[in-house]
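Subject — a protein and its fold
Encoding — discrete vocabulary of local shapes:
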Amino acid sequence: MKGMVFTAFLEMVESKFSLKIADDIIEASALPSGGSYTTVGTYDHNEIIKLVIELSGRTNIPVADLVRTFGEYLFSQLLDMHPYFMEQNSSVFEFLQKVDSYIHVEVRKLYPDAELPAFQYDASIPGTLIMTYQSSRPFADLAEGLIIGCIAHYGEKIDIQRENLSDGSSARFVLTQAGSDL
């Protein structure tokens, strides 16, 4: 997992909780990297899982809620880093349908060794986008948070229903525009 995800997570912890909590969860997690991350480095995804579990234990916020919140935060960070992704798309559905074909292609240019999730799309029902998320890592909550962040950015009224397909590494998201029938 790329270091920019780790650095963004620790920035979120500092801003939403405190620098002390960020330091405490790094120390308590006994991480192979020591908790020292660079944005371009690559780290074991299990380190972020340990950090989230430690944060959950200190805040009494469920792990899934923390990961979704981080996804929303990460979306805003990605938006700041790559505003042109958003400028080229006028809606949530338009943007999300380009994650694999455009955004992940651009990410791979910057980080050729990045292991990215995959999405399949079904937009055959008017007002509905079905996204199937697949990853080798258990981060469907993160994907959901990123989707929520995207919806918030565009300010659209979209309902999300999620169906887990495996151990958290695959999920189906059904996004329905308000006023649309399934």
